[in-house]
Write a structure and sequence with these properties.
Blueprint lengths: L2 E8 L9 H18 L2 E7 L3 E8 L5 H19 L1 H6 L9 E4 L5 H9 L5 H9 L1
């Protein structure tokens, strides 16, 4: 049996530090950790201040374990590789995260949600009034 999990977590203070080379490296690190654990990334989106991830994992791994594997590994790696992250933030990630098993909604719905998050409603509305 495979479990599917939707995860989201934010940079400390929602600071927009996940861009450019940091965002590209974060994407690589998340994929590396998933491969190392035998998990499948269904969808991944790195936004300037948070990460959204849709991942299939083994039943022995709890949602908190999966989230903490990604957060801990990426925080250590990124803060070593990008010193400006150490000077701007006491820690890279906020202590919280959102986790939802996909049993709550079907996988297709979650996939569509993750894929369309860059299309922010307030940006669309702002464009209509300009």
């Amino acid at each position: 049996m495979i479990y599917t999990l939707r995860l989201a977590w934010c940079a400390k203070y929602r600071r927009p530090v996940l861009d450019g080379l940091v965002a590209a490296r974060l994407d690589e690190l998340i994929r590396q950790k998933a491969e190392e654990r035998g998990w499948e990334i269904v969808s991944l989106e790195v936004m300037p201040d948070h990460v959204r991830l849709f991942v299939k994992h083994d039943p022995k791994s709890s949602a908190s374990y999966v989230a903490n594997q990604f957060k801990g590994f990426t925080s250590r790696s990124l803060r070593e590789e990008f010193p400006h992250l150490r000077s701007k933030l006491p820690t890279l990630w906020s202590s919280s995260y959102f986790a939802e098993t996909v049993g709550v909604m079907n996988a297709e719905t979650v996939q569509r949600y993750v894929d369309t998050q860059r299309e922010l409603p307030w940006k669309k509305a702002k464009g209509k009034h300009s």
